[in-house]
Amino acid sequence: MAAAAAVGGQPSPQSEPSQPELGRDKAATAAHLKAALSRPDNRAGAEELQALLERVLSAERPLARAEGGGEEAAAAGGGGGGGSGGGPGAAEEEALEWCKCLLAGGGGYEEFCAAVRAYDPAALCGLVWTANFVAYRCRTCGISPCMSLCAECFHQGDHTGHDFNMFRSQAGGACDCGDSNVMRESGFCKRHQIKSSSNIPCVPKDLLMMSEFVLPRFIFCLIQYLREGYNEPAVDVPSEKDLHKVLQLLGPQISFLEDLTKMGGAMRSVLTQVLTNQQNYKDLSSGLGENACAKKSHEKYLIALKGSGLAFPEDKFTCGMQDQAAGTSSQAVPGFAGATGTSGQVDSSDEEDQDGSQGVGKRKRVKLSSSVKDQSIMDVLKHKSFLEELLFWTIKYEFPQKMVTFLLNMLPDQDYKIAFTKTFVQHYAFIMKTLKKSHESDTMSNRIVHISVQLFSNEELARQVTEECQLLDIMVTVLLYMMESCLIKSELQDEENSLHVVVNCGEALLKNNTYWPLVSDFINILSHQSVAKKFLEDHGLLVTWMNFVSFFQGMNLNKRELNEHVEFESQTYYAAFAAELEACAQPMWGLLSHCKIRETQEYTRNVVRYCLEALQDWFDAINFVDEPAPNQVTFHLPLHRYYAMFLSKAVKCQELDLDSILPDQEMLMKLMIHPLQIQASLSEIHSNMWVRNGLQIKGQAMTYVQSHFCNSMIDPDIYLLQVCASRLDPDYFISSVFERFKVVDLLTMASQHQNTILDSEHERSMLEGALTFLVILLSLRLHLGMTDDEILRAEMVAQLCMNDRTHSSLLDLIPENPNPKSGIIPGSYSFESVLSAVADFKAPVFEPGGSMQQGMYTPKAEVWDREFDPVMVILRTVYRRDVQSAMDRYTAFLKQSGKFPGNPWPPYKKRTPLHPSYKGLMRLLHCKTLHIVLFTLLYKILMDHQNLSEHVLCMVLYLIELGLENSPEEEPDEEEPVGGQERCHDSWFPGSNLVSNMRHFINYVRVRVPETAPEVKREPPASTSSDSFASTQNSGTAQVFSLVAERRKKFQEIINRNSGEANQVVRPKTSSKWSAPGSTPQLTTAILEIKESILSLLIKLHHKLSGKQNSYYPPWLDDLEILIQPEIPKYCHGDGMTAVERILLKAALQSRLNKRIIEEICRKVTPPVPPKKTSSAEKKTLDKEERRQKARERQQKLLAEFASRQKSFMETAMDVDSPETDIAMEIVTPEQQISEAVYDCVICGQSGPSSEERPTGLVVLLQASSVLGQCRNSTEPKKLPTTEEEQIYPWDTCAAVHDVRLSLLQRFFKDSSCLQAVSIGWEGGVYVQTCGHTLHIDCHKSYMESLRNDQVLQGFSVEKGEFTCPLCRQFANSVLPCYPGNNVENSLWQCQSNRSMQELIKEVEELQEQLGIFPSETNLSKEMESVMKDIKSTTQKKYTDYSKTPGSPDNDFLFMYSVARTNLELELIHRGGNLCSGGASTAGKRSCLNQLFHVLAMHMRLYSIDSAYNPWKKLTQLMQDMNSQLCNEEQPEVPVLYRDVSSLLLIQILTMPQPLHKEHFTCIVKVLFTLLYTQALAALSVKCSEEDRLAWKDLGSLKKNTCNAEKSWEVLLSLVISELSKGKLYFEGETEELGMVNPIAWSPDNIERYLQQFCLPFLRITSLLQHHLFGGDLPSCQEEEEFIVLASCLGLLPSFSQTAQPFTSASCLDWPVPAFDIIPQWCFEVTSFSERHAEQVKVLLIQESKWDLPHLLQLPENYNTIFQYYHRKTCSVCTKVPKDPAVCLVCGTFVCLKGLCCKQQSYCECVLHSQNCGAGTGIFLLINASVIIIIRGHRFCLWGSVYLDAHGEEDRDLRRGKPLYICKERYKVLEQQWVSHTFDHINKRWGPHYNGL
Q1: d(C-alpha 1819, C-alpha 1833), whole Å
Q2: Whole-angstrom Cα distance, residue 875 to residue 710?
Q3: Which of 786, 973, 1095, 1477 would bridge 790 by S-S if both were Cys, CB 3.0 to 4.6 A apart?
Q4: Distance CA 541, CA 1118 (A)
Q5: Measuring CA to CA, how many Å separate 809 from each of 715, 890, 1846?
Q6: What is the per-residue pLDDT across 739-765, written as a single tens digit (0 to 9) for each?
């Protein structure tokens, strides 16, 4: 490539003459240059191009402007050229234009791009994404666990049935489709299934020729910009603003490069060539000698380079860099040549160590630097190619997103990938230093990992870099250096002289997890076997690594506060636990995953060896001898845990001999101390002994056992203790345990004792802790022989026994290897198979009104029966209450299955057999010290000593049973000589075998007791001398047996044996524990007569537990079989007595002697145990305790009773969910025929009638509702749109239809008359509901006052009048006054009047003429007024104002009767849209309609209707001169046939004086029915075709003269048709568009059905109204007969007799005026209107009467359908993709939740939409969270999700990303709550949204 070299030459002198070329058209210039360069001799062309580029890309201009610097700006003026004009961006734009032109060589840039794309051989997707991008991960297809796919590749591949999930990228990533190193080829998508390279044609030479010339200059230009823009921050604070400025300016350039990478493989290889070519770099970056600007930028670059290594060599330029030969240069990584050694200096920014630790740090560092094989990591970086310098600046600028994306976009090019990886490694130390200083370390961490995960997940690449660039050395060294900056002196053990240093958890580095990217890379490369092997073989690395781990050993030390509470609770423990898990445990798991087979033994030996060395160093550094410092604990012992885990692996998988890798006894003793200290501290913390350290210490204790940490923390600790216990002397171990738990003093036979180190209130729980610990230690088999599947099963059973669990919480709670890269994670095959073996799935049940249940797993019966393991449960519980919960569930199971009725004890479970290496562990059960403890405790429990609990007994029996299960060998059954007792004078027990020790009698014991103790008074028996005393009594501790002394003696022996330097052990400090016996004078020696053996104590305990004398009878006396074939089940349920029986049986089985002794003891029927003489003081404390306990129990019982009462009340009272069921609380019982209703006030509790002076009111909730408006006239469900094609149009909703109708009427008729012809309130109507409770209005006022003064945060706003019903806590916001008098007009319902129709009509008219006088100002009328105000203000103004003249009284009139209409219509909907079910309905008992009518009527009577316009007259009288009336008004009234009959009904009823007489009501209904029927006929006549009409007209006129003609629809129809044909009604175009009915044959049956359907809605509303006004039940019926039943119920049907002829709807007609007179009058109004506006006549005649029930939108089965469409959809308002998109489930509108972009007058879009769409109620599905959110007025709540995964669980925020499916039941409930307006009552967690949603 000769040309490339030419490009770099000196700036050519020709630059002047070529100036005019700039003027020439760019394309022409480009074409000319391309031609010049294509010639064989292209020297001239190259120089010309070079000069052009020099000018176009001169780096000085833009940035000089950006910085506004002086001289540079001047230079910029001189650097004129193509685009010197314009703003700061103009020059760059110009330069980019030139580059595009030149690359395309004169052609169009777009065509050039397309041409290059054609040669794309890349079979990889490589799409790079940034944080928050939605990607997929398929575990079935992934080879590396980091594998990820973009959505497109995922959906195009076939992953059905795979284990995949969707996730939001945290740090960014890249698509791996097509990369067979990372994923299996079967998972590739259609586009990337391996393309064979043969199909791709070869790239023509001239296509990319220009690129090869132009790009080096372009990239160099970019680098110069970066150099220029960087100013070394003055005081360690990078001036971030400046950096951002530079980056903003460079945005277009970097984007241009990014676009180039997207052109595919051909262009990428050119770029790779340019970026890695060292010659180009050399020529361009240093060859610009004369150019001042270039010099300056080079200097800046050198300054920036300073400090890029880990240390400062004295002289930056003396490092002898041997230049490698050009041939190898591309392979070897530049900058790694040997350099001068460094003396452990740190660069200045790291000089932050405190002086104390400086020395230590130095010592470590020096050792460190010598171990690093490659010095170059210490040195300043050297760059040899563009790529290297670009990465350098990328790091300096803290990884700008665009640069990162560009560098990653290049990765599909293999050569680039290798070069880039090596460059990245070369800069690793520099990355760490930049990261540490960064202020945005979070963002930076993410970007680093974004890059490194792409590089290091590939095993081949990682191996190559490890070999060629010492990747492992670099990583470990860099990590070590990083941590060294925050070390402090350890205060563990010996504060003054400790030499150990630990990390300081308060430092930002740890607090903010800054180390995370580096550790994550390290874990990533250790997951590759080839790399991990190198690490494990390299002794130097292991030493360095252990050094690193020891920084964490003993960090975050806790010191127990003994005096006062800490002022400031430090939260450093988060950092400490995270650091140990991430920096120590995860690499450990990574290494362990490669030590699985015998061949890897060597590795384990290495790790164990260096681990022990590090531990030895640690013990020396903290000056540890044999006693831990008191009141200190650290939870962090990573060295111990490394050691333990590698031991476990060695025995389990590698068949290593355990003893060959164990240290000597002394080391084992030291090793056990700290883990044991942690176990004791756990117990102390739970006993509240650390309470002064604040809550955080509890937090630590919980985290230590929590599922993500337990198998890296508590499990290895317990395992290590098990190993120590199996190898150390058992007596020593047991006594250590009791001493650590501080309960040695408690273990005395005396009834009183002094504990020098524990308060008595902590003794009991510490003793329980010690015994529980021993039980766990002896029965846990996690590392002692269980297989992985058994472990998984045990873990799962333990979790399920505590509580039923969801699938995801189980996954979370089962500890897994924390290293995510160690192979298959749960969710694997074994997880699912074990789960199905131990648990049953409970599908999500649905409790109406209750909480949303999720799918749960619950243990199978046989698991409770055979596998429930309390030990495992105790080990795994984070909260102690979970243990109790598991026991409660176990008890319930036994009761239910009839296995055990009483209160069972934790069951004893047989254990997995021990691995032979750990057999020694069982010696603990057979050592005298433990037997003495067990004996003492049994005795104390029998004698009722203080501070012992059932739990203690339980554990004691458990230990005895364990001992019997694991007895060493059968003991000989020889008879003991009678004088056996004399032989064992040296100790309590003769041997160490529990089986024989159980029968050994102990007669006397000498104890040291306080002088006040009851024992002192007794005279010691004479025969003392011959008793079996332990000789240890003389050692001087005040104790039965000197646990402590014995332990110290053993320790002494071992130390002497090991080192011979016993004098070291003499301890300087003496604590009271070691003082001579004389120093506590209040102790005295007493001798107790005991005469018991363990067996006899057990039998007496059995009697004591049963409360019966000699309750124990050896079972084998009846049934010898028991001994021959002992059927001891593996698992036994029962209580203490059962446990004792089981133990005695096992003891008898194991030795004949035991059997005989048991029989003997039972024969000497033991006298009752004497009640212990308690001193009065003790009695007092005991009584106090007991009394407290009893009081507590009483309180619990009361509370429980109260809770259950409340619950049952809530169940009856709060049954809001289903309007179908009845309710227990009626307002008044209908039987009592009292004249006045009596109300109970739920506040003051008095009952009485409501009066004018002291009115009572109903608690009501008023809410605006648009549910009615959502009814549609088609039964076809509306779907939520999930593609661009689907749209939802709101034309067919009830609200839209009514709106259109009203505005049509208002166009042609008089406004006031229009406003009485319809009802409003379909949208924003006011719905009134009540819980049925009443209260005095004055009581309510004072109640509200108290709420106002209540400071507690309520979920509602008292200012807005909101409150909760004082009785049932239902949400409410107003009180509806009850009208005095009976609330059901019963008296008037009975009397049957015989007045004629005409008389009644007259009366009605007169009653209406009376003007409503407003009642006198009573309290009642005031309240009615205020409630009316409330009703008005409930809905928005736009839903009440429909008149053309604002504020006209007609508006109020319309609004008031529409409120009644809304409530009746909604009740109808709640009943399912018809009245077939009948009954009084909940609505009857909880309905407030009666009270509501009174309030409305009182207000409507204030408006008089001018008698001339009273519709009543038009309905019941014939007008004289119709014509004159019509002509004299410019806007006529609405014709009667256009008026809504139901509205007329409400107007008539509500303008009558109340209470209304039943007969007047019936009269009104009859009159209105005639109008309705005529309307039905008119609509029908419009709907049928011309010939049908003629036929019917003729048929009817024939029958006209028959009798009853007025009650025959044929006659009436013909009348209507003939009347209407007088106008222009029928000529107007044929009825195609109106009929919308395919010409069905209008048979008489069809017509009858049509007429009935038309009239039914009116009949339903009227029947409901009658039911509320006059009481009486609604009859139930079949759907077919609904019309007849309702008609007769309303009194329209003259006592309908079953005559022969079929029923017709017309027979209900009762004409007040002869039909032949009145119908023409009504029709005339219409025909005269048709003269003027023929086109609207028909539309108005046809009223839509059939509405379907309101429904929410139908959702798709699979959530992904919604998610994929909406999560990238742009908002129609702001055209951006919303951060939180949401969609309305009522109308399908897409909105931005919380989006400030769509805010209008301080209302965010969701709140705004909820007001427009639902009058204040909104139901939104949050797309990114799959959750539904409800907005109700000014409050909102999270409702839950209607999409569940395969395990019946919600996935809020799509965290798990598993496929979700619709849960139909939940959606039904949501819809039900919406329709019944019960969101406020059922959902409990409401909060204010402040219009911000």
Answers
A1: 12
A2: 9
A3: 786
A4: 71
A5: 21, 21, 14
A6: 999 988 888 887 777 777 888 888 889
